[in-house]
Amino acid sequence: MDNGASSYLRFLNDDREGFVQLVKDYKDGLVMFLDCLTNDIHIAEEAADETFLKLYVDKPKYKAAHSFKTWLYTIGKNIALNYMKKYKKHKNMPIEDYFYLCDEEDIEGNYIKSEENLRVHRAIRNLKKEYANVLYLVYFEDMTNAETAEVIGKSTKQVADLLYRAKKALKSELEKGEQNG
Fold first, then answer.
1. At what angle do helices 41-58 and 68-88 cross, to 10 degrees?
2. Predicted structure pTM score
3. Rounded Cα gap, residues 28 and 15, in angstroms
4. Rounded Cα gap, residues 48 and 92, in angstroms
5. How much is the pLDDT for 104?
């Protein structure tokens, strides 16, 4: 698989179906990664939408030196971090603004099908953000340590060390969940 590069190149050459394919292939995964980063599914969804909007409107240049997925997730991460800064200032919203949440589609439930994966995903959400990000990118998105390093802005060695510590923390969190459940 070319990681989306051919679809993006088709889109850049005025084939709108290339863009549709990108959204189909990457939106759910991008939202889940950004949710690990932000701990807020709604900000994650907005940031993912903004990421695809940026591709559609700005048509940034993609360099084949990196995987397309790594490039896309890096753009998404930067947009999500900007959203978090922006929304930090407006954290206290009236309760009425949250009523719409009950009617939204459960992306997390659609994306994570089995009970075991759901249990693991919930345990990951209880970990430090950098652990959650590394685990998610490596195990749910099948990124290499090098690709993960590029997305989160660390060295490959740092990612390997984080991954080791994250797996230990995840094991502990899962064991804690078994004792409580």
1. 120
2. 0.69
3. 22
4. 23
5. 47
